[in-house]
Design goal:
It is globular, with a radius of gyration of 18 Å. The protein has helices at about 115-120, 135-145, 160-170, 200, 205-215, 215-230, 240-255; strands at about 5, 60, 65, 90-95, 130, 145-150, 170-175, 180, 195. It contains 7 helices and 9 strands; from the N terminus they run ββββαβαβαβββαααα. The protein is an alpha/beta fold.
Length: about 260
Amino acid sequence: MSPVNQNNTRCRRPQDIVIPPYVNVKISASDSGWGYRSGSVSGSGSGSGSGPGPSRTAVLTFEGLDNSDKEGRIPHKLGLGFEGRKKHLAYFSGSIHWTSKGPGYMDPLYSWGIRQVLQSLYLGDPDVRIQSTRRSKNDYYQHIMNSVFCLDIPGWATWTPRLQESMSVGCIPVIIGNDTDLPFQDYIEYDKFVLCVSERDAIKPGQLKRILQAINPERINSMISWMSVYRDGILYDRDELYHHLVRSLQKSLSHPR
């Protein structure tokens, strides 16, 4: 069993079950801190979709911070066709260069060059923020909560807790990579709330930002709503994760490869 996997790596075996890594995130115990209200925003762009269940107010919470407005709109102001208060269109924080062999050495193979290229492309960009260091856990979560999209960029591999971290606080995951398996994907409809961008597209100048800006507010609302539906399946303090795990083990045992 392993977290977020890639089919084209030698670590991936056919019998593997992809499971979420453990993430200790404080989130609101009430669904009222997560919902959305369909049609509460307007704007232009491509894509469409409607969320599950009844309409609810869009409030994202982390350690008690309320980021919604009184109309229940998802708060951001990043050229997506409506006003709000989210600070960033997209956010990433993590190592950019691998220097394990000593100061001044930068391994050219690390991240296949993707993190390095993206840092160069979006240096100083007000909407897409690429940070090379984390100041504190609380600061990190405040940043991802205040971003519409959270970038999941491979390091040495795609094994990362970023999918779970971003889902926990209502930031739409953007997985940059090719041929990636996600935890319990037989039971979680990731296509409803996760964006996948190929490595080739991600490193084209301006392409990643164009892809994200083209997603309209209605689809953003829908993706956040679906995230709230499936979130319990990747958090270890919720029963649903263990149900997925047992079902995955049963399926693996009944269909040996």
